């Protein structure tokens, strides 16, 4: 029985025979083919790993629209995947010089503290400037394995040595078709053999970085436009509110305080102030009357400013409506005297607009930047112009209002004096000149008024007529001056009896007086008459004739509820008739008209 040979032995023998035959025929052996297959497999795996790493890095780069994050991610991932010691981003300027964006470079441990390229380090390459980007404009990369073996110029080598660069690879960064900058990989410690795959990887990252920067800049542009629109909207709102306040209120202090605060916030400036020139100062003296200022800067409020330089050199331009816009006071060809004044208020940049009242320069609207110089935008300047125009309108309106108020005050005083004079005249026209109680004219007006009122309300109205007994004899004996004094005392005593504001005592004529009592019936009227009679007797004024040798009075009383069927003439006649009856009965008494009627009825019976 034949012994079976194992397959593994046959395979080995066959492999050796094929390898030997292949060598004789000068063909690749199985070992060679397997080695080549292994090498290709490793290459494909490396390419796959690199592509995967590229996609992962690109994903991280494109994941953000913030430039700082984009640059940091790009340099860090590129440095790690290429295994180099540093990766930086270089950005071209308009003149094809440029600067390293130092905040966005990444270095491996050991090289991160090396004095390399700091933030905004300018590196102007004369070759790149002369050829406007050189080879990079053609989208070419540059690879230097060893700076000492690359046939570089001595000045170029000295610059590279300054930053300890031994080898580098660079790829252009494009935004659309414009060369934006360079992505650079550096080796510090020793020369570096740059593999083609590494250079391709650097180029791919630079392309993706260009896309990311483009998107970020577009976003930044959109955000800036949105910010400008918000600022413009805020500025227009301030103008709208200012115009509204001018129309609704011309209180300049409130208007200035509100506006300076809102304007400073809108322009993000350090100080906004309203400066007013003193009248007759020829624009050399003045002070800030209102301001809004950041707390870290000195207040200019109420500080007296003496600036002969301004009055002589600049005032005439502001009177003509010109404005001053300074981005940097030290580069504006200002007079030393002017700079000294500006330094007093810590000013580095400013916008100054004239405030005109009528045709005269009233003051200045001042926008100050104190921290540093500032480039003012056209929109900001236009806003300040519009603002100053509205301020000038407010000043003119305020001036006119002040004039109007002054004239109104004078007119008011005149009207008050006239009204007071009229009241005095009216009082004089209604008052009796001797006794200072209502006269016959006012008595007639008031009695007519009360007659109508009581008729509407269906209420009692009473009238008392009183006359001084034997007054002619009193005058003949004591004289008219004493007679006047007697009438004055009688008027005051009778007035003292009346307690209600609506009751009226009037001088009816000569020594005769009248009392009007609204809402008073017969009983009440008779009681008042008796009280007046007693009050006059209580005066004890001596009289040459009479029952008790003192001045007495006689009173006639009548009471009615007024109606259309009756007249005032009849009403007064009844009181007068009652007075006559009192005199007939011996004087120094009172008689009600109803008592006369009752007496007649009794006699007739």
What separation lies between the terminal Cα atoms?
194 Å
Q: Can you tell me the CATH superfamily of the largest domain?
A: Reverse transcriptase/Diguanylate cyclase domain
Alpha plus pi helix count: 17
Low-confidence segments: none
Query: What's the rounded overall pLDDT mean?
Result: 83
Q: Mind telling me the CATH class of the largest domain?
A: Alpha Beta
Based on Cα principal axes, name the global outline. elongated
Q: Under the CATH scheme, which architecture of the largest domain would be assigned?
A: 2-Layer Sandwich
Rg, Å, rounded: 57 Å
Helix content: 40-55%
Largest sheet: 7 strands, antiparallel
**Beta strands, count:** 18
SS-based class: alpha+beta
Oligomer: single chain
CATH topology of the largest domain: Alpha-Beta Plaits
Domain count, please report it: 3
| Beta-strand proportion | 15-25%
Descriptive overview:
With 605 residues, this protein is of the alpha+beta class. The protein has three domains: 64-219, GAF domain (Beta-Lactamase), CATH 3.30.450; 249-402, Beta-Lactamase (2-Layer Sandwich); 440-604, Reverse transcriptase/Diguanylate cyclase domain (Alpha-Beta Plaits). It contains 17 helices and 18 strands. The protein has helices at residues 7-24, 30-62, 67-82, 126-130, 154-162, 196-248, 252-267, 308-313, 315-319, 336-344, 378-430, 440-457, 471-478, 480-497, 522-539, 568-584, 593-604, and strands at residues 86-92, 98-101, 106-107, 119-122, 142-144, 167-175, 178-187, 271-277, 285-293, 304-306, 324-326, 349-357, 360-369, 461-468, 504-509, 512-518, 553-560, 590-592. Strands 1, 2, 3, 4, 5, 6 and 7 form a seven-stranded antiparallel β-sheet that branches. Strands 10-9-8-13-12-11 form a six-stranded antiparallel β-sheet. Helix 2 (30-62) packs antiparallel against helix 3 (67-82) and helix 6 (196-248) packs antiparallel against helix 7. The chain is elongated. It starts with 6 loop residues before the first helix and ends with a helix.
């Amino acid at each position: 029985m034949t012994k079976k040979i194992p397959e593994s032995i046959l395979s080995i023998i066959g492999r050796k025979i094929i390898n030997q035959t292949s060598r004789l025929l000068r063909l690749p052996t199985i070992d060679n083919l397997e080695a080549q297959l292994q090498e290709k497999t490793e290459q494909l795996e490396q390419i796959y790993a690199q592509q995967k790493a590229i996609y992962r890095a690109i994903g991280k780069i494109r994941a953000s629209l913030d430039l700082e994050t984009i640059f940091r991610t790009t340099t860090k991932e590129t440095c790690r995947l290429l295994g180099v010691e540093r990766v930086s981003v270089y950005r071209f300027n308009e003149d094809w010089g440029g600067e390293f964006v130092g905040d966005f470079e990444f270095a491996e441990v050991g090289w991160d503290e090396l004095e390399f390229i700091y933030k905004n380090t300018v590196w102007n390459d004369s070759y790149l400037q002369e050829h406007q980007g050189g080879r990079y404009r053609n989208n070419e990369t540059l690879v230097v394995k060893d700076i000492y073996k690359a046939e570089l110029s001595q000045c170029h080598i000295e610059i590279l040595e300054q930053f300890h660069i031994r080898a580098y690879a660079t790829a252009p960064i494009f935004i659309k078709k414009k060369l934006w900058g360079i992505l650079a990989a550096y080796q510090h410690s020793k020369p570096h053999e740059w593999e083609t795959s590494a250079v391709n990887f650097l180029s791919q990252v630079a392309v993706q970085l260009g896309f990311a920067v483009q998107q970020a800049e577009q976003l930044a542009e959109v955000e800036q436009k949105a910010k400008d629109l918000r600022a413009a909207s805020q500025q227009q709102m301030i103008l709208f509110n200012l115009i509204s306040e001018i129309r609704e209120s011309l209180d300049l202090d409130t208007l200035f305080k509100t506006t300076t605060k809102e304007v400073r916030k809108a322009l993000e400036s350090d100080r906004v102030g309203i400066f007013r020139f003193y009248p007759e100062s020829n624009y050399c003296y003045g002070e800030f009357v209102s301001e809004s200022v950041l707390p870290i800067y000195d207040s200019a409020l109420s500080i007296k400013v003496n600036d002969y330089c301004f009055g002589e050199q600049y005032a005439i331009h502001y009177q003509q409506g010109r404005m001053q816009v300074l981005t940097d006071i030290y580069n504006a060809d200002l007079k030393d005297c002017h700079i000294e004044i500006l330094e007093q208020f810590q000013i580095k940049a400013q916008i100054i607009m004239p405030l005109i009242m009528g045709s005269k320069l009233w003051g200045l609207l001042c926008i100050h930047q104190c921290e540093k110089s500032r480039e003012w935008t056209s929109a900001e300047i236009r806003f300040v112009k519009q603002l100053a125009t509205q301020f000038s309108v407010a000043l003119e309106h305020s001036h006119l209002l002040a004039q109007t108020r002054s004239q109104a005050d004078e007119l008011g005083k005149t009207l008050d004096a006239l009204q007071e004079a009229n009241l005095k005249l009216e009082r004089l026209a209604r008052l009796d000149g001797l006794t200072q109680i209502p006269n016959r004219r006012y008595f007639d007006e008031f009695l007519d008024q009360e007659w109508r009122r009581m008729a509407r309300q269906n209420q009692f109205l009473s009238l008392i007529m009183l006359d001084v007994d034997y007054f002619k004899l009193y005058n003949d004996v004591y004289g008219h001056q004493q007679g006047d004094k007697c009438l004055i005392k009688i008027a005051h005593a009778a007035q003292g009896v009346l307690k209600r504001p609506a009751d009226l005592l009037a001088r009816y004529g000569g020594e005769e007086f009248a009392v009007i009592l609204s809402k008073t019936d017969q009983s009440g009227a008779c009681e008042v008459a008796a009280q007046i009679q007693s009050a006059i007797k209580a005066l004890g004024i001596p009289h040459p004739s009479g029952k008790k040798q003192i001045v007495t009075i006689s009173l006639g009383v009548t009471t009615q509820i007024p109606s259309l069927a009756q007249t005032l003439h009849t009403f007064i006649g009844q009181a007068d008739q009652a007075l006559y009856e009192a005199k007939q009965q011996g004087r120094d008494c009172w008689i009600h008209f109803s008592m006369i009627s009752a007496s007649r009825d009794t006699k007739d019976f």
